[in-house]
Amino acid sequence: MTGTTGQTAPRLLRRHRIGIVGAGPAGVHLAHLLKQRGFGRVTVLERDTRVGGKSLSVVHDGTVFEMGACYVPSNYDEYRRLLAQYDAGRVVSPPALARDVVTAAFSGSLTTYSLDAWTGHLTDRLIRSGTLRPGGAARRLIDALGAVRRLVAERNRLLGRGYYPLSDRPTPAVLRELAAPFGELMERCRLQILEPFFRLATSAQGYGVLETSPSFYPLLWNERRFVVSFILTRLGLTRRPIVSAVDRGSQSLFTTIAARDQLDIRLGCEVVSIERPGGGRPVAVTLRTENGATEERFDQIILSGDLRGSLGYLAQPSDDEQRIFGQFLHSSFVTTLFKASRWPATAYALNVADALTPNPTLSVSGVRERRFLAPAANIGPALGVAYQFRQDAHGPAVLADLDQSFAPEMRQLGFADLSIVQRCRWAYCPRFPAAAVAEGLPWDIFAMQGRHDTWYAGSSASFESLNDVMKYNVLLLRHYAE
Fold it and tell me: Any idea what the Cα angle at residue 351 is, between residues 348 and 355, rounded to 5°?
């Protein structure tokens, strides 16, 4: 590989004792891959009392509720392979997905649409503006597939045909294109017919609205199969779902792998500091546990969690680590398991709020009823999970504001007599601002792999999705492991 790692690449060797910080999806999957390759001295350090990270599936009143990762699109190949291999659950299509609704602020008023009606609304608006040609389903299919071909060609031109870190570092001109708003790329490549898809898959995913989101992230995540499945489903040409879910919850895979592989995972271990003296001397990791402080020594350390947060415990972060990790942005994502005596008639599956628009007025971005993973249960929609999202920042003040706005916004959406069962607060969607993308910082992380006996994985290094953290792990070990 050229243009990424230089001439002398470091290696992960089977004789190394390896420490992985974080037992989320990236950390557990990486420990699994290392064990499969014959690495017998791998320890995972996790400050929580469970594995799974942002894959958190809570069982309450006999029903599984997803408090973090939940969907399994058709292109999640590694996740689906392991799910079958470990018999960790079945991929199902929640019936609730057929009743998706979108709450969007058009013309300044809050209006609830079915997802089909919302898609039609955007399409009609584009036709009236002269951006799209009028026509039926056949015309829509031809135009949409033509847009997909142009999307794939542009993706290959800007990111290369493989997973992006393995391509040569882009030229400054290409980096500027990747930093430009995706809305500009859509207009330049005539992708407007795909706007409903990108509004959902990019804005609702947490990477910003199309008017401001750097093109790098939508291009990276929205693979051809995923886009085509959306088109075919929304045109009624297939019954296959756009996305599916796991009947036992997304966390089931990681708890099953950890147990079946007998991974060495130390729970309740908070990393306080990491000393990396170099020169062949071991990495010293100071941990805080319920029994007091302790120290572990490793030949190599892998950071699979929040890379910006790692600046707080790396004893002497390198100049590159400070330069790169300090530029990460995070969103706030709060999930609330709640009870309500009255639900609005339209809130069966999903209320994607006007976070899909440049100026959102609500923080509540989604509501799912309990039948999401229990379709046969004749138990009514008293229990559900609500999702709040704040794109611009993450921190105590933002979380306090989301706490205060939850009940008023839910009443505005038509819920009554709310009571909170459980609440989870996530630092979500680590990403670079446009200026950092223009500097090539996503490639710089891969170029740093192995320096100072340190490796980087997880959503900060790749993208906030199960698919991407697994693809990045496979790539990392394929390139650097013995």
Answer: 175
How many residues comprise the chain?
Answer: 482
> Which residues make Cβ contacts (< 8 Å) with residue 362, sequence separation at least 6?
103, 110, 353, 354, 355, 409, 412, 413
The residue extents of the domains of the chain are 18-52+250-327+441-480, 57-76+89-95+330-431, 132-240
Phi first, then psi, for residue 441 (nearest 5°) are -65, -35
- Establish whether domains 18-52+250-327+441-480 and 57-76+89-95+330-431 are of one fold: no
**Rg of the Cα trace of the chain?**
23
- To the nearest 10 degrees (0 to 180), the angle between helices 224-234 and 115-128 is 100
Pick the CATH number of 57-76+89-95+330-431 from 3.30.70.1990, 3.40.50.2300, 3.60.15.10, 3.30.980.10: 3.30.70.1990
CA 252 to chain centre: 17
Helices (H) and strands (E) in the chain, counts: 16, 20
User: What type of residue sits at position 444?
Assistant: D
Q: Are 171 and 190 in contact (CB under 8 A)?
A: no
- For 78-111, the pLDDT digits (tens) are 999 999 999 999 998 765 443 444 443 333 344 4
Q: Of 249, 242, 282, 312, which is closest to residue 97 (Cα–Cα)?
A: 242
User: CA 216, CA 155: separation in Å to the nearest integer?
Assistant: 9
Biggest CA–CA distance in the chain, Å, is 69
Per-residue pLDDT tens over the stretch 344-386: 765 433 344 444 555 567 788 777 777 677 665 555 568 888 8
What does the angle CA 430 – CA 432 – CA 434 come to, to the nearest 5 degrees? 145
Running DSSP on this structure, what letter comes out for residue 286? E
Backbone phi and psi for residue 382, each to the nearest 5 degrees, phi listed first: -65, -35
Chain position carrying tokens 């058009």: 106
Strands 329-339 and 283-289, how do they pair? unpaired
- At 333 the three-state DSSP class reads strand
Provide the 3-class DSSP secondary structure of residue 172: helix
Cα distances (Å, whole numbers) of residue 87 to 27, 128, 257: 20, 50, 10
* Whole-structure pTM value: 0.89
Rounded distance between C-alpha atoms, residue 287 and residue 245, angstroms? 36
> Is-contact 124 279, C-beta < 8 A?
no
18-52+250-327+441-480 topology per CATH: FAD/NAD(P)-binding domain (3.50.50)
